[in-house]
From TrEMBL:
<dbReference type="Pfam" id="PF01233">
    <property type="entry name" value="NMT"/>
</dbReference>
<comment type="similarity">
    <text>Belongs to the NMT family.</text>
</comment>
<dbReference type="InterPro" id="IPR016181">
    <property type="entry name" value="Acyl_CoA_acyltransferase"/>
</dbReference>
<feature type="domain" description="Glycylpeptide N-tetradecanoyltransferase N-terminal">
    <location>
        <begin position="34"/>
        <end position="190"/>
    </location>
</feature>
<feature type="region of interest" description="Disordered">
    <location>
        <begin position="1"/>
        <end position="31"/>
    </location>
</feature>
<feature type="domain" description="Glycylpeptide N-tetradecanoyltransferase C-terminal">
    <location>
        <begin position="204"/>
        <end position="386"/>
    </location>
</feature>
<comment type="function">
    <text>Adds a myristoyl group to the N-terminal glycine residue of certain cellular proteins.</text>
</comment>
<feature type="compositionally biased region" description="Basic and acidic residues">
    <location>
        <begin position="1"/>
        <end position="13"/>
    </location>
</feature>
<dbReference type="Pfam" id="PF02799">
    <property type="entry name" value="NMT_C"/>
</dbReference>
<feature type="compositionally biased region" description="Polar residues">
    <location>
        <begin position="15"/>
        <end position="25"/>
    </location>
</feature>
<dbReference type="InterPro" id="IPR022677">
    <property type="entry name" value="NMT_C"/>
</dbReference>
<dbReference type="InterPro" id="IPR000903">
    <property type="entry name" value="NMT"/>
</dbReference>
<dbReference type="GO" id="GO:0005737">
    <property type="term" value="C:cytoplasm"/>
</dbReference>
<protein>
    <recommendedName>
        <fullName>Glycylpeptide N-tetradecanoyltransferase</fullName>
        <ecNumber>2.3.1.97</ecNumber>
    </recommendedName>
</protein>
<keyword id="KW-0012">Acyltransferase</keyword>
<dbReference type="InterPro" id="IPR022676">
    <property type="entry name" value="NMT_N"/>
</dbReference>
<dbReference type="InterPro" id="IPR022678">
    <property type="entry name" value="NMT_CS"/>
</dbReference>
Length: 395
């Protein structure tokens, strides 16, 4: 074996053992990697180091919800300087973890046996994806977290193997997940973009820098939003079926996308205060013509005398009239989305450079971020998806 290849193999002691492509040349065509039956799956949980125990979180129980919230708010994803850390709210977690078909068995915690403190977590929710024309019923894995004091002890692989076992026992053998880090082997890599709404605060907290030769006044002016184009109104229960049809039609243009049932749209898209914000435009016959949604994901800020959080809205799903063929309409829809996020007091709108987002990023003054999000499939080979063919947005 060549020494470079050997190094790479050693570099991923866990992922080398998993049914994922080990590199891009491993993917000649799409398809399942390892065929398994429920009867092949062991019944007993994987062993944890002594002192620790598995714990199924009851996300509807306030104490459990607060415990998971506390773990994540103190230990979840940070930027490379450890200044900004995702601060998903307890209400957000309650919503995100319970779409139709959710299972408590897939809200998996690890506790210290002696004091019952939750020190690690991983979750799965069911979803249907369309991948290059194939339909996959799988799980979306998210919120993998190990307490900072327990890092680098190979606990993450145990969590991943145990959730895999629990998912496999229900007859599901594929998963999708995203991460900032590069693992074997991304199916797509999408860049983050940021659209300042409160440019002064973003400079004060070090999220952005005032460009050279620019005054703060002109910087603020640059990001002003005034004209709105569509009469967007909060989405309501009565819009669910039309939004489902419109959104699925829009998404079906992409090689890789989620397929939503009405029940899933009802759960994931109807507005929830301070969690998910969604709006529709309607024509004179009261038919939904456009849809847009964003979710609230603040980041806490370490060591700042003035601000504790950046209030970030993340662009979730949208579907413009004309399904993006009319680029002006897409830009108008997104312009109005920015105005609504500003009205809701967000400091910034974040999104990825996927699906049709290139249609509006420059014109609406989104800036390129430093971060990239890698998309992965577990136990399924999939030829590379270009960002503009990616139609899956995860929380
Ligand atoms: S990405 C967010 C992940 N969470 C964070 O970044 C929070 C802060 N970091 C931590 O809590 C969204 C820890 O650093 C974590 C690793 C827990 C990340 N995905 O225990 P060890 C998600 O939640 C590999 C996958 O010593 P640690 C998606 C790493 O490459 N693997 O590390 C989650 C190494 O393996 P290798 C990751 O730092 C998807 C091994 O972990 C990873 O104490 C999960 C080291 O383990 C990541 N983000 O804990 C996969 N980060 O082979 C689901 C590191 O390289 C798969 N690693 O030696 C599908 C399962 C379901 C299938 C069903 C059919």
């Amino acid at each position: 074996m060549q020494s470079k290849e050997k190094k790479e193999k050693e570099a991923h002691k866990f992922w080398n053992t998993q049914p994922v492509p080990q590199n891009e040349s491993d993917v000649q065509e799409d398809g399942v990697i390892e065929h398994k039956e429920v009867s092949d799956i062991k019944q007993e949980p994987y062993k944890l180091p002594s002192d620790f125990e598995w714990y199924l979180v009851d996300i509807n129980n306030e104490k459990d919800r607060t415990d998971v919230y506390t773990l994540l708010s103190q230990n979840y994803v940070e930027d490379s300087d450890a200044v900004f850390r995702f601060d998903y709210s307890p209400e957000f977690l309650q919503w995100a973890l319970q779409p139709p078909g959710w299972k408590q068995d897939w809200h998996l915690g690890v506790r210290v046996a002696s004091n019952k403190k939750i020190v690690a977590f991983i979750s799965g929710i069911p979803a249907n994806l369309s991948v290059h024309e194939s339909k996959l019923h799988l799980v979306e894995i998210n919120f993998l977290c190990v307490h900072k004091k327990l890092r680098s002890k190979r606990l993450a692989p145990v969590l991943i193997k145990e959730i895999t076992r629990r998912v496999n026992l229900t007859g599901i053998f594929q998963a999708v997940y995203t991460a900032g880090v590069n693992l074997p082997t991304p199916i797509s890599i999408c860049r983050y973009f940021h659209r300042p709404l409160n440019p002064k605060k973003l400079c004060e907290v070090g999220f952005s820098q005032l460009p050279h030769n620019t005054t703060m006044a002109s910087h603020i002016k640059k990001y002003k939003l005034d004209v709105s184009f569509l009469n967007l109104q909060p989405m309501q229960e009565g819009d669910v079926s039309q939004v489902t049809a419109l959104l699925n039609e829009f998404l079906s243009q992409f090689e890789f996308h989620q397929v939503f049932s009405e029940e899933e749209v009802r759960h994931m898209m109807l507005p929830i205060k301070d969690v998910v914000f969604s709006y529709v435009a309607k024509d004179e016959n009261d038919n939904v013509t456009d849809f847009t949604a964003f979710y609230s994901l603040p980041s806490s800020i370490a060591r700042n005398p003035k601000h504790t959080h950046i209030h970030a809205a993340y662009l979730f799903y949208y579907a413009p009239k004309g399904l993006g063929k009319d680029q002006t309409r897409s830009r108008h829809l997104m312009n109005d989305t920015l105005i609504l996020a500003k009205q809701a007091n967000f400091d910034v709108v974040n999104c990825l450079g996927l699906s049709h987002n290139q249609q509006f990023l420059d014109e609406l003054k989104f800036g390129k971020g430093d971060g990239y999000l890698h998309y992965y499939l577990y136990n399924y080979r999939c030829k590379t998806i270009q960002p503009e063919q990616m139609g899956l947005v995860m929380l």
